[in-house]
Design brief:
Helix content is 43%, strand content 11%. It has 608 residues and is an alpha/beta fold. Strand 4 and strand 5 form a beta hairpin. Helix 5 packs antiparallel against helix 6, helix 17 crosses helix 21 and helix 21 packs across helix 22.
Length: 608
Amino acid sequence: MKPTSPLAHHSPERLGPLTRLNLLLVTLVALFLLAACGGEETPAPSFSLNPNANATHIHDIGLLDCPAMEQNFPRPEPTTSAKRTRDFSPFTDALDAFTPERAAELDALLANATILDMQTALERGDLTAVDLTTYYLDRIQRYDIDTFNAVLELNPDALNIAQTLDDERASGSVRGDMHGIPVLLKDNIATGDQLHTAAGAYALKEWQADRDAFLVAQLREAGAVILGKANLSEWANYMDPCMPSGFSALGGQVRNPYGPFEVWGSSSGSAVAATAGFAAVTVGSETQGSIIMPAGINSAVGLKTSRGLVSGDYIIPLLDWQDVAGPIGRTVTDVAVALTAMAGINPDDAQSQAAAVLDGTDFTNALDLDQARQLTVGVLIVTDEDVQQTIDDLGISEGNAESVKAALQEPNAARQALAAHLSDMGVTVVEVPSSAIPINLDVGPALEYGFRDALDPFLANAGGSMPVRSLADVIAVNEEDLANRAPYGQGYLTGSQNTAVTAEEYAQIREQHQAAAQTALDALFETHGIDALMGSQTQLYAPAGYPAITVPTGYAENGQPTNVVFIGPYLSEPNLLTIAYAFEQATQAWQPPDLDASRADIDALTNE
């Protein structure tokens, strides 16, 4: 299903003299405003390339002929030879001994369990870390392989790690809330073990890093079981504008466990794995929307962290000054537990040191409804003044003004209904006019230069078995067999390699984007006296380096997950978690996906 516009029921004929261009502009405004309230369907972020950079001349993906984007959901995947085989051979004995009866017992035990509930069960002896790890391996084997494609690679040492942690527990040593908890990592996060790290790309398929990323070391120290790597939109969704979200050459096409819907990206596999029960919690990364959007559309809780709270060390970069990692889970509690383990000061990461004020924070302390009553949340409302400004800016005729007004203000009631859940929990809610978001930033030119600028030194300096040393090398490897290694093309890669954006222009863009976004959001929070804004302003919180969290709100009539997003000031994760927890407890909206039904739809597609 394609994202629908709030103006979809208004045809050009009914709008009379409103030109097609103005219709497009009004539609985009309405989509933007709908996204701000966590609307039913969130529009995809669009990246643009400098027209001089590449023959594709990409400015607007809607202007391109992309047959893959027109395919119905669940999306088919191209038949290629590059897809990595998921190897279950290290787990054969454990899986053979894992009976359907034991699987059913654990299904019942873990159906609504948070990580804290799992710890209680582990302490009681109702299960072990080996049981828990085997349970997730069994679910991945039964449901994910060539179906949802959320898991790209499995850690052959996972059961051995789990056994070691069980032995520690038996001896009376428990490291914390993550002890014995299986975690999946997005495939751009380096691990110094037998796993590969490739960003889903064929050119990096043999890379085994020489060490863990800092956040991975933090998780291991906290007792997590690194279960494997999650699939993603290849190169963090910067491969080609015609490549569908959730596809990578090594991982195939990620699919939504709730039905024939989009998965968004780039942390597609991390989001699906979290909500489908393929791990207790997962880790994704975001440059601009890559945690929030896939988590939202797949009915997961996703936290895009403040820049530096979780070190960006040894994560394959997209735009290094905007990239962050964050947890994705089924509940706010799971995200808080994982964040507590992941966060920490990396002495070799200057940005990490800037977040030192939260060092050592136990983020589960934020799961407090009493604290929620001390907080204020702003909800974006399209006022009459906002509508009139839009009408004036677009030159909409008087005869069409009322229909445009109705369309633009239609989301208000839904936003107010969502905000009412917070009011019920004692959170103060104030209305904020949509005009308080004064700017929109185009990340395209920054990505175009910044991707190569960050990737080349990363590849050149990477330890271990790195097979390529530059973006040019990656492009050349793909060109040897485009049909299998880049079936949708590699327009973003070649566009970045050949960019006309200069270093001076890039530095100016970076400075301007960060300053503009921070200034706008700081003014909004201060002017309206709010601790958080209910709204998905990806063009602002991402370049600002500020946090955002998405929480499920339920499901549309067709079963598609819906969500709400809260954004806050820099390092306001404790408040955001408190607000998200209050909303989650008030709504109890999450429901598990019917994996058997969704798999049947995918099987039918495969057998056509």
